[in-house]
Amino acid sequence: MAFLPVEEQIEIIKRGTVEIVPVEELVEKLKKSKKENKPLKIKLGVDPTRPDLHLGHSVILRKLRQFQDLGHEAILIIGGFTAMIGDPTGRNSTRPPLTSEEVEENAKTYIEQAKKILDLEKLTLVNNADWLGSMSFMDVIGLTSKMTVARMIERDDFSKRFENKEAISLHEFLYPLAQGQDSVHLQSDVELGGTDQKFNLLVGRQLQKDSDLDQQVCLMMPLLVGTDGSAKMSKSYDNYIGIDENPNDMYGKSLSIPDDLIYTYYELVTDVPIDELPAVKDKAEKDPRNAKHDLAFTIVKMYHGEEAAKDARKHFEQTVINKSVPDDAPEFELTAGESARLMDVIKELNFSPSNGETKRLIKQGGVSLDDEKVEDFALELAMKAGEEVVLKVGKRKFAILKGV
RNA sequence: GGGGAGAUACCAAAGCGGCCAACUGGGGCAGACUGUAAAUCUGUUGUCUUACGACUUCGUAGGUUCGAAUCCUGCUCUCCCCA
User: Cβ of A162 < 7 Å from strand B?
Assistant: First the structure.
């Protein structure tokens, strides 16, 4: 395929990026690639430790996809070997290493989800255990000689852990080197990573130079702030929107982001064309309510299709705005004439993890039957045949109880 | 190799023989409010039990005691200082 003019490529590549080091080299590489009609090798390494992808991961995967669409070669590295070390980046404690079986299993799940974003047909998929695993101890020592202790411990995450008197295992120092070695092996032209990966990406550049290779350009994407509006999106902070999540949750969670993140989300996680972004920004400021609903709709549509997005919008309007029963509330059958404890019904519906929790909910007015708050937690239900009662637990758990 | 400090619920962090299911903050959940699953305010936050209460929990295994998160011993792990 013919490559787009370099300026146009750059414009697409720059969308949402925080930093490209050095950008001039990227321009040169793109020029050369176009001239020789040879795609660039774009590297992205992923750690198969947490296989649940969310919008935060999508930021960088989408960037990789954009390179694919521009005709370049996307190389996704499953960090099979590095996962057995554990990336210390941004961590305040040592990661537990994985076994190779776990890695394989996680990698499968990862790809299963990543295919929603990447073009698998055109993707080069590799596992760094294939080359890192066969290095000799001597090779490893050779690698370590290229890095100084001072450089390692001046890194934020290490120095913080050091100051906080937390453990840093020696093997964690090898992580950036291993990642850099990937770049040497693949002879990558560009490596993608979050801003927190800057150090690791730069090590790749250095190691390539030491091996007399062309140096990769490092492209850093911002870390997407999660739905809480403060910390980066992460499963452990529970402020994430998973790309595999059901449409209703996806829609609702998207709406829960603070208003000032609306534009950022449009820019980083949606396909809204670049030339429409200014208008979107304007709308986000002037009409945040609708801008956010549009955003939520767009996100659900991307991962579940238009129909699902419409349904999700409807569900949200029904449950949250009108506080009424959603169409998709599950039904729960009760034998007519027999009494059943409400607490048990709630437990069977999985609406509450324990009876203690259920009591608390009831005490606080969080449970209602046909819009009437339940006050007695020992309530016994006795349904007549054909009777229907709407049970609401908490903010958004609904069920239709049916007498059978 | 030597010396010292520490391990508490989802996280952080008090408690240091009974009043401790364990202060406090964060998080979570609920109620009110709201364009919102945002913000704010209030309440709540081990399991079982209608309730009285019972049971499990303070790194781990034992021990002392009427009684232990709190005292003693072994073990595991972590941190600091010196070499």
Answer: yes
Nearest CA-CA partner of A187 in A170, A207, A172, A168? A207
Asked whether residue A351's C-beta has any atom of DNA/RNA strand B within 7 A, the reply is no
How many residues can be counted in chain A? 404
- Domains annotated on chain A, with CATH: 6-221 (3.40.50.620), 247-321 (1.10.240.10), 331-403 (3.10.290.10)
Sign of CA dihedral A125, A222, A69, A179: negative
- Which residue gives the smallest C-alpha to C1' distance to B43? A364
Give strand letter and number of the nucleotide nearest A258 (CA to C1'): B38
Instruction: Quick: pLDDT tens for A227-271.
Output: 888 778 887 677 889 898 889 889 999 998 888 889 999 999 999
CA atoms within 13 A on the CB side of A38: 7
Q: Which long-range contacts (CB under 8 A, 24 or more apart) does A314-319 make?
A: A315/A247, A315/A248, A315/A251, A316/A248, A316/A251, A316/A252, A316/A255, A319/A396, A319/A398
Residue A404: closest CA among A381, A384, A376:
A384
User: Model-level pTM?
Assistant: 0.82
- Token pair 């370099």 is at which residue? A6
Distance A40 CA to B58 C1' (A): 56
Distance, CA of A109 to CA of A48 (rounded, Å)? 9
* A378 Cβ contacts chain B strand, under 7 Å: yes
Q: Is the CB of A326 under 7 A from strand B?
A: no
Strand B: which positions are within 7 A of a protein CB? 27-32, 35-39, 43-51, 78-80
Q: What is the pLDDT of residues A158-213, one digit of tens each?
A: 777 776 666 777 777 888 899 999 999 999 999 999 988 888 999 999 999 999 99
The tokens for A7 are 């300026």
Distance CA A382, CA A337 (A): 6
Tell me the two tokens of residue A160.
């913080």
**Cβ of A253 less than 7 A from strand B:** yes
Contacts of A246 (CB under 8 A, 6+ apart): none
